[in-house]
Amino acid sequence: MTKTISLIGAPIQTGAWRRGCLMGPDALRTAGLRQALVDLGHDVTDRGNVAPLAAEVPPARNTAIRDLSLCAGWVGALQAEAGRVAAHDIPIFLGGDHLMAAGTVPAMAARAEAAGRPLFVLWLDAHSDIHDFDSTDTGNLHGTPVAYFTGLSDFSPQFPVLPARVDPANICMIGLRSVDPHEKSVLAATDIQVADMRAIDEHGIATPLRAFLDRVEAANGHLHVSFDVDFLDPDIAPAVGTTVPGGATFREAHLVMEWLHDSGLVTSLDIAELNPFMDDRGKTARLMVDFVASLFGKSVLDRPTRG
Predict the structure, then answer these.
(1) Cys-Cys with 73: which of 53, 56, 96, 249 at CB 3.0–4.6 Å?
(2) Residue of 98, 131, 222, 254 marked catalytic
(3) Neighbours of 56 (CB within 10 A)
(4) Does the annotation count 262 as an active-site position?
(5) Residues 6+ positions from 217 with CB-CB distance below 8 Å
């Protein structure tokens, strides 16, 4: 089935300490993302890159936080741009560090709410990103979007008022393997479904994914997928500033994307934390294009033989 897809660049790197993620959107374009989707029969429009809004916000109590006004400008700009996506389009947000989800996810939650449907979020990541302004030791705000878009912590007056919040019970995190004590305590107090890498090793990656997709379908929900490059094992995807050994394999990640395609439930997608400055001749960008193609219909039988 032909989908109408919008590519929206989110070249944000101020949420992280390591620079280079601002090149992520163009690396995905250079790796052929649009053409890969067009070749699958989809109608694809590249809407270019978002620019941050001018913002001056008061400092947070935590002096470790850097670039707060610029981060707030990015969150506001991404919420506004994502909010302009047509009701039946599938936006693919090209990142950019994972602070982007503080902009994209609330906008997708508002779109789902306007349609009278709940938003579910599949969080593919080595990290839970559930810190807030007070709890972050690093000051890196790419570790905060989940606490923000669930409303679990107060981010006012620095970040925009949420247009809609995501129920923590509607979130499934798959691939976690680097979670600090504060985040563990927050996760334990919520209804967020967690499948860390040990659970995947013991039960396979399809088991938690199947259960989550069944819930989305039963609720007639919208499904936003937020795919952090560090979900993958760094041996296959080196272009990320937050590598953690023991991530998803090539086939595990493809299986996730193939299941998502078969479900027909995905309504929006983030590609986060791609840092081309750390890549090996575009290896990770090309891999991410291949995964996105799987999400939009490329079959395992379509893989080329390589010499």
Answers:
(1) 53
(2) 98
(3) 8
(4) no
(5) 263, 265
**Cβ–Cβ under 8 Å, residues 181 and 101:** no
- Among the listed residues 228, 252, 279, 290, the single catalytic one is 228
Catalytic status, residue 46: no
Q: Catalytic annotation on 125?
A: yes
- Is 142 known to be catalytic? yes
Residue 126 is which amino acid? A
Selecting among 230, 233, 252, 270, the annotated active-site residue is 230
**What's the number of CA atoms in the CB half-sphere (13 Å) around residue 1?**
8
d(CA 32, CA 60): 40
**Burial of 300 (C-beta count, 10 Å sphere; 0-12/13-18/19+):** exposed
Q: Which of 252, 258, 270, 273 is catalytic?
A: 273
Cβ contact 4:88 at 8 Å: yes
Indicate if 137 belongs to the active site.
no
Respond yes or no on whether the N-terminal peptide bond of residue 157 is cis (omega within 30° of 0).
Answer: yes
Give the Å distances, CA to CA, from 22 to 91, 130, 141, 149. Answer: 19, 23, 15, 22
> Would you kindly state where each structural domain of the chain is located, as residue ranges?
4-300
CA 155 to chain centre: 20
Whole-model pTM: value is 0.97
pLDDT over 90 (residue 301): no
Burial string for 187-217 (b: 16+ CB within 10 Å, else e) reads beebebbbbbbebbeeeebeebbeebbeebe
Q: What is the pLDDT of residues 100-143, one digit of tens each?
A: 999 999 999 999 999 999 999 999 999 999 999 999 999 999 99
Active site residue 43: no
> Out of 131, 132, 142, 279, which one is annotated catalytic?
142
| Helix ranges, 235-303 (H) | 250-263, 283-295
Instruction: Tell me which architecture the domain covering 4-300 has in CATH.
Output: 3-Layer(aba) Sandwich (3.40)
> Residue 305 corresponds to which tokens in the numbers above?
């033989």
